[in-house]
Amino acid sequence: MFHTIRPMLPDDLAAVLRVQAACYPPPMQEAPDVVSMRLRAAPATCVVGCDGDGVCGYLFAYPSRLGRVTALDAPFAPAPDADTLYLHDLAVDPRALGRGLARSLVAHLLGPGQRPALAHAALVAVQDSARFWGGFGFAAHATDDPGLAGYPPGAVYMARLNC
Ligand SMILES: CC(C)(COP(=O)(O)OP(=O)(O)OC[C@H]1O[C@@H](n2cnc3c(N)ncnc32)[C@H](O)[C@@H]1OP(=O)(O)O)[C@@H](O)C(=O)NCCC(=O)NCCS
């Protein structure tokens, strides 16, 4: 199916929150003001995927440090000495699943020549998505960040080398 990927804009937030609501159980829903602050903190690394009916997927990311976890519902704190693109939240609306949109969103930020050019990428895999992320070269990685404890059981911190 045809879809486009573009930078996320403030006007997209209502649709982004609808996708979040469709993709996560209540304990994992993040507050609208936190989501909005994240876009303001890292506009260069937050993107949406759109189909003919509008926004149907998104990816929030920001420059961080390897080993650091963003707690659920916490604002982004971009690192001045970043070495890692932290992918905080990737979600695709049920209407658009299985059509390569998640792959396109990830490739948009991690594909060759993309900026910022950081040595690593990392994330917390939730909802049985570790195998999905493994397909992009991510593997379980040690972290002692206390933010991981706030995630549901089964969440896995994963990282990869970007090159
Ligand atoms: C995980 C998610 C983003 C995948 O979206 P999608 O648009 O259906 O994924 P794509 O169509 O781009 O699939 C890309 C590849 O991953 C595979 N894949 C998709 N979901 C998968 C999963 N849960 N486990 C393993 N592989 C998966 C696809 O088969 C495809 O493989 P292929 O290219 O070899 O055919 C989507 O299921 C989702 O939004 N889930 C709810 C939110 C969530 O839990 N996000 C993870 C946050 S860490």
Give an overview in words:
It is built from four helices and seven strands, in the order βααβββαβαββ. It starts with a strand and ends with a strand. With 163 residues, it is α+β, with helices and mostly antiparallel strands. The longest helix has 11 residues, at 13-23. The chain has one domain: Gcn5-related N-acetyltransferase (GNAT) (Aminopeptidase). It binds coenzyme A. Residues 23, 90-92, 97-103, 123, 125-129, 131-132, 135 line the site of coenzyme A. Coenzyme A binds at residues 23, 90-92, 97-103, 123, 125-129, 131-132, 135.
Q: Which characteristics define this entry?
A:
Aminopeptidase; alpha+beta; binds coenzyme A; 7-stranded mixed β-sheet; 163 residues
CATH H-tier superfamily: Gcn5-related N-acetyltransferase (GNAT)
> Judging from the principal axes of the Cα atoms, what is the shape?
globular
Total helical elements? 4
| Count of the domains | 1
Alpha-carbon Rg, integer: 14 Å
Q: Largest beta sheet, briefly? A: 7 strands, mixed
The low-pLDDT segments are none
**Strand order within the widest beta sheet:** 1-2-3-4-5-7-6
Structural class: alpha+beta
Bound molecules: coenzyme A
What is the beta-strand fraction? 25-35%
Can you give the mean pLDDT? 96
Q: What is the CATH C level class, in words?
A: Alpha Beta
**DSSP summary, beta strand count:** 7
Helical content stands at 10-25%
Distance between the termini: 29 Å
Outline the secondary-structure elements.
Elements: E1 4-7, H1 13-23, H2 32-41, E2 46-51, E3 54-64, E4 84-92, H3 101-110, E5 120-125, H4 130-134, E6 139-140, E7 156-161
The structure holds coenzyme A.
